[in-house]
Protein backbone atom coordinates (compact mmCIF):
# COMPACT_ATOMS: atom_id res chain seq x y z
CA UNK A 1 0.00 0.00 0.00
CA UNK A 2 1.33 3.44 -0.88
CA UNK A 3 1.07 6.43 1.46
CA UNK A 4 -1.24 8.23 -0.95
CA UNK A 5 -3.62 5.25 -0.69
CA UNK A 6 -4.04 5.52 3.08
CA UNK A 7 -7.50 6.42 4.31
CA UNK A 8 -8.20 9.74 5.99
CA UNK A 9 -9.40 7.90 9.08
CA UNK A 10 -8.27 4.54 10.36
CA UNK A 11 -9.67 2.92 13.49
CA UNK A 12 -7.56 0.90 15.91
CA UNK A 13 -8.49 -0.83 19.14
CA UNK A 14 -6.47 -2.17 21.98
CA UNK A 15 -7.58 -3.66 25.27
CA UNK A 16 -5.61 -4.55 28.37
CA UNK A 17 -6.35 -6.89 31.26
CA UNK A 18 -4.46 -7.04 34.54
CA UNK A 19 -4.12 -10.74 35.34
CA UNK A 20 -1.78 -11.02 38.32
CA UNK A 21 -0.11 -8.77 40.84
CA UNK A 22 2.50 -7.43 38.38
CA UNK A 23 1.40 -8.84 35.01
CA UNK A 24 -1.17 -8.05 32.38
CA UNK A 25 -1.92 -8.79 28.75
CA UNK A 26 -3.23 -6.77 25.85
CA UNK A 27 -4.92 -7.37 22.53
CA UNK A 28 -4.71 -5.12 19.50
CA UNK A 29 -6.69 -4.61 16.31
CA UNK A 30 -4.39 -6.65 14.10
CA UNK A 31 -3.04 -9.27 16.49
CA UNK A 32 -5.48 -11.74 18.00
CA UNK A 33 -3.16 -13.44 20.52
CA UNK A 34 -2.70 -11.75 23.93
CA UNK A 35 0.69 -10.11 24.48
CA UNK A 36 2.11 -9.91 28.01
CA UNK A 37 3.24 -6.69 29.68
CA UNK A 38 4.12 -5.66 33.21
CA UNK A 39 5.43 -2.75 35.19
CA UNK A 40 9.21 -2.20 34.83
CA UNK A 41 11.37 -4.94 36.45
CA UNK A 42 12.94 -2.43 38.87
CA UNK A 43 9.40 -1.87 40.23
CA UNK A 44 8.75 -5.59 40.65
CA UNK A 45 7.60 -6.42 37.15
CA UNK A 46 8.46 -9.55 35.23
CA UNK A 47 10.63 -9.80 32.12
CA UNK A 48 8.06 -8.44 29.67
CA UNK A 49 7.69 -5.02 28.05
CA UNK A 50 6.39 -2.27 30.30
CA UNK A 51 3.87 0.32 29.07
CA UNK A 52 6.80 2.73 28.83
CA UNK A 53 8.71 0.27 26.62
CA UNK A 54 5.62 -0.17 24.47
CA UNK A 55 5.26 3.61 24.13
CA UNK A 56 8.79 3.93 22.74
CA UNK A 57 8.28 0.80 20.63
CA UNK A 58 5.27 2.45 19.01
CA UNK A 59 7.49 5.33 17.89
CA UNK A 60 10.17 2.92 16.61
CA UNK A 61 7.79 0.72 14.65
CA UNK A 62 5.85 3.67 13.22
CA UNK A 63 9.12 5.31 12.14
CA UNK A 64 10.24 2.08 10.48
CA UNK A 65 6.98 1.41 8.64
CA UNK A 66 6.67 5.07 7.61
CA UNK A 67 10.15 4.94 6.08
CA UNK A 68 9.30 1.71 4.25
CA UNK A 69 6.11 3.26 2.82
CA UNK A 70 8.03 6.32 1.65
CA UNK A 71 10.72 4.12 0.09
CA UNK A 72 8.02 2.14 -1.69
CA UNK A 73 6.58 5.34 -3.16
CA UNK A 74 10.11 6.25 -4.35
CA UNK A 75 10.44 2.76 -5.83
CA UNK A 76 13.41 1.86 -3.68
CA UNK A 77 14.01 -0.39 -0.69
CA UNK A 78 16.69 -0.25 1.97
CA UNK A 79 19.22 -3.06 2.09
CA UNK A 80 19.10 -2.89 5.87
CA UNK A 81 17.14 -0.79 8.34
CA UNK A 82 17.33 -0.48 12.11
CA UNK A 83 15.46 1.97 14.31
CA UNK A 84 16.09 2.53 18.01
CA UNK A 85 14.27 4.94 20.31
CA UNK A 86 15.12 6.15 23.80
CA UNK A 87 13.55 8.64 26.17
CA UNK A 88 13.49 9.80 29.77
CA UNK A 89 10.34 9.47 31.88
CA UNK A 90 10.46 12.41 34.30
CA UNK A 91 8.35 13.25 37.34
CA UNK A 92 6.82 16.72 36.80
CA UNK A 93 4.27 17.14 39.60
CA UNK A 94 2.83 14.88 42.31
CA UNK A 95 2.29 11.72 40.22
CA UNK A 96 2.47 13.34 36.79
CA UNK A 97 5.18 11.86 34.58
CA UNK A 98 6.14 13.03 31.11
CA UNK A 99 8.54 11.70 28.52
CA UNK A 100 11.43 14.00 27.63
CA UNK A 101 14.49 13.68 25.43
CA UNK A 102 12.80 11.27 23.04
CA UNK A 103 15.48 10.35 20.54
CA UNK A 104 15.13 8.13 17.49
CA UNK A 105 18.10 6.76 15.57
CA UNK A 106 17.68 5.32 12.07
CA UNK A 107 20.51 3.32 10.54
CA UNK A 108 19.85 2.44 6.93
CA UNK A 109 21.84 1.19 3.96
CA UNK A 110 21.07 1.40 0.25
CA UNK A 111 20.74 4.09 -2.39
CA UNK A 112 22.03 7.15 -0.53
CA UNK A 113 20.22 9.74 -2.65
CA UNK A 114 16.78 8.12 -2.40
CA UNK A 115 17.18 7.12 1.25
CA UNK A 116 18.12 10.67 2.21
CA UNK A 117 14.99 11.98 0.46
CA UNK A 118 12.87 9.35 2.20
CA UNK A 119 14.38 9.85 5.65
CA UNK A 120 13.86 13.61 5.50
CA UNK A 121 10.09 13.00 5.24
CA UNK A 122 9.78 10.51 8.10
CA UNK A 123 9.56 12.94 11.06
CA UNK A 124 6.66 14.83 9.48
CA UNK A 125 4.76 11.69 8.41
CA UNK A 126 5.17 9.34 11.39
CA UNK A 127 1.71 9.54 12.93
CA UNK A 128 2.77 8.24 16.34
CA UNK A 129 5.61 10.70 16.94
CA UNK A 130 3.40 13.52 15.67
CA UNK A 131 0.54 12.61 17.99
CA UNK A 132 2.57 13.02 21.20
CA UNK A 133 3.60 16.16 23.07
CA UNK A 134 7.35 15.66 23.47
CA UNK A 135 9.70 16.71 20.69
CA UNK A 136 11.23 13.70 18.96
CA UNK A 137 14.74 14.16 17.59
CA UNK A 138 16.04 11.93 14.83
CA UNK A 139 19.61 10.99 13.93
CA UNK A 140 19.80 9.32 10.54
CA UNK A 141 22.85 7.33 9.51
CA UNK A 142 22.91 6.29 5.86
CA UNK A 143 25.49 3.75 4.70
CA UNK A 144 27.39 4.04 8.01
CA UNK A 145 28.55 7.57 7.31
CA UNK A 146 26.03 10.10 6.05
CA UNK A 147 24.11 11.74 8.86
CA UNK A 148 20.97 13.86 9.12
CA UNK A 149 19.66 15.53 12.25
CA UNK A 150 15.87 16.07 12.18
CA UNK A 151 12.88 16.70 14.47
CA UNK A 152 9.16 16.04 14.25
CA UNK A 153 8.37 19.78 14.62
What does this structure look like?
Helix 1 (51-73) packs across helix 2. By secondary structure, this protein is α+β, with helices and mostly antiparallel strands. It folds into two domains: 1-49; 50-153, K homology (KH) domain (GMP Synthetase, Chain A, domain 3). 24% of the residues lie in helices and 39% in strands. It contains two helices and seven strands; from the N terminus they run E-E-E-H-E-E-H-E-E. The mean pLDDT is 89. It has a four-stranded mixed β-sheet, with helices on one face. Strands 1-2-3 form a three-stranded antiparallel β-sheet, with no helix packed on it. Strand 5 (96-109), helix 2 (112-125) and strand 6 form a beta-alpha-beta unit.
Given as residue ranges, the uncertain stretches (5+ residues, pLDDT < 50) are none
What's the multimeric state? single chain
Report the portion of residues in β strands: 35-45%
Largest sheet: 4 strands, mixed
Could you list some keywords that capture this structure?
alpha+beta, GMP Synthetase, Chain A, domain 3, 2 helices
Amino acid sequence: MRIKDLAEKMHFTSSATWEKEKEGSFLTTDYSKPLLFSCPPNLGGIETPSPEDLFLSAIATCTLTTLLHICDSLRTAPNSLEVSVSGDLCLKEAANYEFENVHCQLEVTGDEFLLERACEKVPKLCVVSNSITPLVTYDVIINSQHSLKLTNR
